[in-house]
Amino acid sequence: MTASTTAGIIPTATDQAAELPWKQELNHLPIPYKPHTHLTGDAAIQFTVRVVKAYGMGATIRDIGEHTPRSFGTVHRSLLKAGVKLRGRGGAHDGVRLPVA
Fold it and tell me: Is there a domain that residue 96 lies in?
């Protein structure tokens, strides 16, 4: 294989440096958490702190859920419990934006 064909297959230091900042934040989590288990104590606190930081860096709830073994609902609840004001949904708005309650 030549250097050009291996570039997309094997991650290099350059690829890791180009990784999104919120992904780097979530990489500090002790993953994998066992699926279908509740996070308690220090694990829950660490998860929430990292999720809040990642969300603040621009990650979506769905992005975080896909990058961690946790559901959309778990990530959403963690953000709400932490007091984070959630961003509005994306997509087309037909030029009209409704006020956020």
Answer: no
Mean pLDDT to the nearest integer, 15-25: 73
- Tell the residue number behind the tokens 């992904």, with chain if given: 23
Segments forming the whole domain that contains residue 28 = 23-81
DSSP, collapsed to helix, strand or coil, labels residue 24 as helix
Rounded CA separation 49/88 (Å)? 21
Describe the crossing of helices 41-56 and 72-81 by its angle, rounded to 10 degrees.
Answer: 90
The answer to whether the predicted template modeling score (pTM) of the entire model surpasses 0.70 is no
The identity of residue 77, as a single letter, is R
Any domain includes 77: yes
Number of domains composing the chain = 1
